[in-house]
Specification:
heterodimer, A: alpha/beta, Rossmann fold, six-stranded mixed sheet, 7 helices, B: alpha+beta, 2 domains, eight-stranded mixed sheet, four-stranded antiparallel sheet, 14 helices
Amino acid sequence: MIEVKNVTKTYGKKQNSFLALDDINFVIPDGASVAILGKSGSGKSTLMHAMSGLDRPEKGQVIVDGEDILQLKTKQVDTFRAEKIGFIFQSFFVQANESVSDNVSLPLEIAGVPQRIRSKKIRAALESVDLIDKIGNKAKNLSGGQKQRLAVARAIVNEPRIIFADEPTGNLDSVTGQKVEDMLFGYNKENGVTLIIVTHDPELAAKCDIQINIKDGKIDSIV
Amino acid sequence: MKAQDIIRRAGRNLSQAKVRTLLTSLAIAVGAFTITLALAAGTGGRAYTNAMVEQSGDSLSLNVYPKYEAQAEAASGLEEYGVEKQESTSGMKVLKQKDATELKALEGVQTVSPMYSIDVTYVTRGEGFKKYIAPVTTKADRTAMILAAGSLNDNMVDRGGAIVPKSYLESLGFTDPQAAIGQTIILSIPRYDSAGLPTGESKELSLKIAAVDQKGDTALYYQEMIRVSPEDSEAMAQYQRGPEKADQFYGLVVLAKKGTDIKALQESIKAKGYDVYSLQDMREALLQMINVAQWALVAFGALAIFTSIFGIINTQYISVLERTQQIGLMKALGMRSRDIGRLFRYEAAWVGFLGGLLGTILAVLVTLANPLITSALKLEEGTRLLIVDPLPSILLILLLMAISVASGYFPSRKAAKLDPIEALRTE
């Protein structure tokens, strides 16, 4: 369960200060699929950064499974992200010159998983995104949709508890985008992994269990 | 993240930018190449010098002379006219038999032979043969000789024998060196009175040619002279100058027993108030020259490496800039700043390793040209002037890796401190 309490984040100083998040409060149950819906500049990405430990809001708590991650030391937050969280980004961020296998291997290496266990997990992840036949290829030789599927494989290879997806289908055509969406929701339902999607697309948001509307740093409504 | 995984990722990152990696490591390779060759030339040069010196003289012999005292300091100012000059006590002194006896008593001394200078009026093969003027000297030490024919006893000639240079054979009427062996050669020795003037008397000493010697390629110096044994030399000197005067020689040759510490013996003779010269003095002088040359070349190599440091720093900074998104991603995935820094430092270490290895391999390839160098310098066949020692090479590569890592320190710090959110922001 993820509890967000009184989270407030300000950028800049004094006159140039900008209130990105203003006293955000909500609770997300385990295994739910959640959409954080808002327009550009609404603070949705900032909220994701705060919830995943990438950023520290100056006020508030983010309690994941009973532990406030904002109180943890940097090293522990890094470990938390490596072991419990998977990320998917709009721009894929796959490492183009590396092989597909080395791309998926990265979260495992960061978490310190020994080599002999890694290959099994990599294959399993690539199979579930239907990319196993490309295991030896360089990432730059994949199409956009394949790259995002590679990113999904990378996100799930470490069997995380939470997956954050920032505009996952933003750079994909509707057909490929649909495939990736199905993959994500499928993984969410089958494995009980909490899925948090940040998006400005209301159709995608409607497919999730919970929809958090955010506007100008404040929660608008929760559906 | 495990160290071996970081090392592998670092290697992969470099192989994905092959040209840039190659160029950076080439700069280091130039320095490594220069230093390795300089050290190789030093090693080879020293080995060659030692071998050459061994061949040129007897390492177990010392030449002892009376201590040379400098002239009394000339008084400053003008010399007064008409005043008798004081007798100077300077100049060459002589050594006597008692000095020889004193030195013979030292530990490790095998024999002590006086250096005589013998005047010989002429040499001839006998009745009916021509008479020739030739220099004659004593074979006082065991310096190896290159013989065209005949043999020597522990590099010394026995009493009654003579060593004749090959170049004299034609004049003496020998067709080839082998024909000269065992043949008679007669030396005519004039007698001098106590004032050193010839009395008109002379004596003939008959010797058998024991060996014919010739100039070698590696000897430091070679003098063409007829060489006789110390015993015959002494006998000739006794006759020529009379027993009294014969007990004055300008120097002594001390031959040491095998296994003696020559340097210690040299010091103990010096302590007794003599001037002593040994082959080692020359060897040390030559070695010093080689060492100076070697370190000068090493300094050039070090300069090349110093220059390459700037290249490494620059390349690393550019690499960090280029891979900002990659770094941001890795941090988002939970990679610790410390490990990001280590990733870039390992890449720098790889570059240092590759450069050092490349430079060393190229230097070793150059040493394959040893035969060419030897023949170009007209040295003895089989001489290797470039010898690469494996241990210094390994240490050099490790040192270069350390220098590279140190160069990459600031860029890797920058990478480690990147803010992941900023890094992931795409334009």
